[in-house]
Design a protein that fits this description.
The structure is a homodimer of 277-residue chains. Chain A is α/β, with parallel strands linked by helices and 277 residues long. In chain A, helix 1 packs across helix 2, helix 1 crosses helix 4 and helix 7 packs across helix 8. The first copy, chain A, folds into 3 domains: 82 residues, Winged helix-like DNA-binding domain superfamily/Winged helix DNA-binding domain (Arc Repressor Mutant, subunit A), CATH 1.10.10; 109 residues, Rossmann fold (3-Layer(aba) Sandwich), CATH 3.40.50; 41 residues, no CATH class. The relative contact order of chain A is 0.07. Chain A is built from 10 helices and 10 strands. Helix content of chain A is 42%, strand content 14%. Chain A starts with 16 loop residues before the first helix and ends in a 24-residue tail after the last helix. In chain A, a hairpin with a 3-residue loop joins strand 2 and strand 3. The N terminus and C terminus of chain A are likely disordered. The radius of gyration of chain A is 26 Å and the shape is globular. Chains A and B meet through helix 1, strand 2, helix 4, helix 5 and strand 9 of A and helix 1, strand 2, helix 4, helix 5 and strand 9 of B. Bound molecules: nicotinamide-adenine-dinucleotide (NAD) (2 copies). One nicotinamide-adenine-dinucleotide (NAD) sits at the interface of chains B and A. One nicotinamide-adenine-dinucleotide sits at the interface of chains B and A. Chain B binds a DNA duplex (30 and 30 nucleotides) through helix 1, helix 3, strand 2 and helix 10.
DNA sequence: CCATCTTTGTGCACACGTTCACAAACGCAT
DNA sequence: ATGCGTTTGTGAACGTGTGCACAAAGATGG
């Protein structure tokens, strides 16, 4: 089942993944226009509203079909419908949220959640002290009920907001129950069988990416290359690098210092790691 | 300032953006190994732990330098240090969170936040009934204090968790105060001056992408192409498409029905849009 | 019906990202 | 030392994504 030609996940029905990821953005902008009763919009205007370049937007739409009119633009209502249909938003998607702690509560209360076809079918938790309480008007049910809920309500999307340690186990259980799409908020790499999609939302990763660029900005104008940060050894070819590597391993693991003969190595300005976790 | 050769954002110091985005993933896996006192790890093992393919991991690391030892693998502690340094995590990054509602509270309480060099410098809100309360042991301060806090604590990263309507305004104010990196949770396209980085976390978009693939899975085995879903007109070339477009515009905007002459158009199985927002 | 103006849809070139596959480097045993 | 098994680091091929630039389509006005 589900033979894919060669790549890992070839584009489905010709719509590139990058385009799919932008469709919700366009849809949001179009919905805003629709609410203002704007009848048509040009690719230039819509692109500006969605924060992309207009050529990209036109190419994205071209994968859906030719829905524009040259010299005029796109019909807002019609595009809203076409994109909604393409994304599968003309139907209702029941979701379960597992792990009703800080984040689970926030998600349960999130209005924008239900606004576009996603309906919270159930809130689930393993902790008996949490089960029975309610969030956003919905009761928190016990994990034991998961299978019955997924089956009876035809839930195919699950959201995981448990601590990282429980995420894989919860994921397995969701998949076993029949869920085939998972949105994971726990900082864990989930392993799933073929045919199940996982997407993650990871605050920590986003912040670290920002920090990387931030650091870059800071160390830009000053004299190039802050000194002492990188050993010259590491870019050097030949046996010098090998000696440096040996040094590192010995220092890092703090054992077998005996057979380090320092060979040609002199400069040792490296800090021995063990950084703040 | 900040001249980039030709592209929008050429790779900084040779590290591709895609690689930067994976470094936090590697770091997380390495930290776990470090806690188990594993001294060295092969690219194959580490790649499995991080959920990527080993060739990609090796190439990623090659951008940082040659930190491995052939026949052995990578020294865990040393790599943790190198990646931390590359991401700028050897220094402390104070952040402000603006908009302490459901989500802001959850973030403030999030432990994994502070664990890697990110310190919550302040919680801010505009609502007088929220200001003065406390979340996760920190007091919620009024927006008026933003500029003073950013300056005195050298905050360069801001997190926006306000309603969408306030996001751009809050963003402008953060930038004006000196913040140069923004993590946005509001479903809004933020406009910022050059030199400011914005990353977004958008639950709604993630769910919609999942729905797209979910729909694909559902409509896969059944006889190809669910009928009645797409008008044959829209893939047709020539004047037929034009007539269809005219029909759509007229139907969508509900005006100027007079000059639709139906020309060659017969089949009109399309629903006239106006979908659930 | 023609001229003119606007805006789409897309071919093309290039940049970026991924994966393969293998030589070179290294540890270790003999 | 030498040989053997292991694993890195990277060149090269391939796939995906982006953006330019323009012909063709359609609107509009005379
Ligand atoms: N709070 C945030 O802002 C934030 C930000 C980023 C990531 N995260 C991640 O999101 C997850 C949840 O964060 P949180 O702050 O809400 O944590 P939390 O501890 O407040 O809530 C976790 C909930 O999961 C439940 N749970 C534990 N094991 C379970 C199991 N096996 N089955 C079902 N439920 C189980 C607990 O009873 C608890 O109610 C964590 O993985 C965290 O790292 C949180
Ligand atoms: N709650 C979620 O799970 C969730 C999920 C995805 C996205 N979001 C988005 O995150 C944002 C916050 O969601 P929430 O549920 O926490 O909303 P919320 O209404 O609970 O909280 C918003 C907070 O922002 C404050 N605020 C409003 N205007 C402000 C301004 N100009 N300056 C400073 N503070 C201001 C309000 O006083 C309030 O405390 C929203 O944009 C929402 O769409 C939330």
């Amino acid at each position: 089942m589900r033979r894919t030609p060669v790549g890992r996940q070839t584009r489905a029905r010709g719509i590139p993944e990058a385009t799919v990821a932008r469709l919700p953005l366009y849809l949001r902008a179009l919905t805003a226009l629709s609410e203002r009763s704007v009848p048509t919009v040009s690719s230039e205007e819509l692109a500006a509203a969605a924060g992309v370049n207009s050529a990209k937007l036109r190419k994205d739409f071209s994968y859906l079909g030719s829905y524009g009119t040259r010299g005029v633009g796109y019909d807002v209502e019609y595009l809203v419908y076409q994109i909604s249909r393409e994304l599968g938003l003309t139907q209702d998607w029941p979701v379960v949220i597992v792990g009703i702690g800080n984040l689970g509560h926030a998600l349960a209360n999130y209005g924008g959640f239900a606004s576009r076809g996603f309906r919270v079918a159930a809130l689930l938790d393993a902790d008996p002290t949490v089960v029975g309480s309610s969030a956003a008007g919905l009761p928190v049910r016990h994990m034991d009920e998961l299978e019955a809920i997924v089956e009876s309500q035809h839930v195919s999307i699950g959201v995981i907001t448990t601590p990282p340690g429980a995420a894989q186990q919860v994921c397995d259980r969701l998949v076993e129950a029949g869920v085939t799409s998972i949105l994971n908020f726990a900082p864990t790499v989930l392993t799933v069988p073929d045919g199940v999609d996982v997407r993650k939302v990871d605050l920590s990763i986003e912040l670290q990416i920002l920090a990387f660029h931030e650091q870059r900005k800071a160390g830009e104008e000053p004299d190039q290359g802050r000194s002492g940060e990188e050993s010259v050894l590491d870019r050097a070819p030949g046996p010098v690098r090998a000696a440096a590597a040996k040094l590192r391993r010995a220092a890092g693991a703090a054992k077998d210092i005996k057979d380090i003969k320092a060979e040609k190595v002199e400069n040792d300005s490296e800090r021995p790691a063990v950084m703040p976790a």
